[in-house]
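Minimal example, chain plus pyridoxal-5'-phosphate.
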Amino acid sequence: MSKERAYNFSAGPSMLPLSVLEDVAANLVNYQGCGESVLEMSHRSAEFKAILADAEQNLRDIMNIPDNYKVMFIQGGGTLQFAMVPMNLLRKSGKADYIVTGTWAKKAAKEAEKYGDVKIVASSEESTFTYIPEVKKEDFRPDADYVHITLNNTIYGTHYPYIPDTGDIPLVADMSSCILSEEIDVSKFGLIYAGVQKNIAPSGIAIAIMREDLIGFAKEDVPTYLDYKIHADNGSTYNTPNCFAIYVAGEVFKYIKSIGGVAEMNRRNVEKANKLYDYIDSSALYNCPVRKEDRSLMNVVFVTGDADLDKKFVAEAKQNNMHNLNGHRSIGGMRASIYNAMPAEGVDALIEFMKKFEEENK
Ligand SMILES: *Cc1c(COP(=O)(O)O)cnc(C)c1O
């Protein structure tokens, strides 16, 4: 028995725009009448070269990426970037400063410890990562090779309300769970990276946007594939890339362009998130533990305060066609991930369900 499409609140992989899915489906067997599917196509073919070039150009357009930045599509997701960052950017003092605002930030720092001298400059772990610490330029080691932040914390539902000022030290940001949800001044960063399965495409790649003068410092023993230079010099096709994920990413970039760009995407995201937070804050049953200024537009965490009731909520929501509302397995509770592709109707349906559940479980 088939079921109508659900509202999928998963933290990742997550929903893609329906129009993109339909377009991909219509072209799946015979891409634009070329006689082949993108699933079968050579990465050296004229068709795929055009897909890749368009994807990069459309991303450059919607993010306003300056010309002195390279765009790379790299396999291994966000996690491989945790290793590639220190392998490529520890190029002078061997020191890197990390701000730890959640599980992913912690993992990134831990990976860097394998390669260099890592200092945790600030952390909000003592309060279960419910806020973003304020960090000033003087807090960083002046000779650090880079500073690393996680802009949106997927598990804890926080987001930086500011971009740390690191002076001349390159700022590296993991934007896996917020890329393209808000306008970003790329020139403030040395390197931006993001696994694509939250806001862009099916899983399998990460996108790296890197200032050119930072490329080319990997040590001799760094594996070829893990040197950003190999990807930059070969236009993301040094070896066979994940062609299908790049193709879907390109379709999503076109979609964002068509609705009015990242500014319009952000306007919709703010509207969705405000509605949900306002309801949570007004309700007697649900509570959001995150400091108001630091709340994420993408991942809305909340609890009832009763673990059994939380479980019941998640199960009943599923019966009502709202999937994956459970919090991360490490913290429990609920989490509604309302990425770019979650329609406003999905958030409205969730709020209606929450009201009904509150009424029934007073
Ligand atoms: C999901 C996520 C990751 C990990 O991504 P993978 O592609 O699964 O390796 C890293 N950082 C953040 C902020 C994430 O949300």
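DSSP finds nine helices and 13 strands in the chain. The two ends are 35 Å apart (CA to CA).
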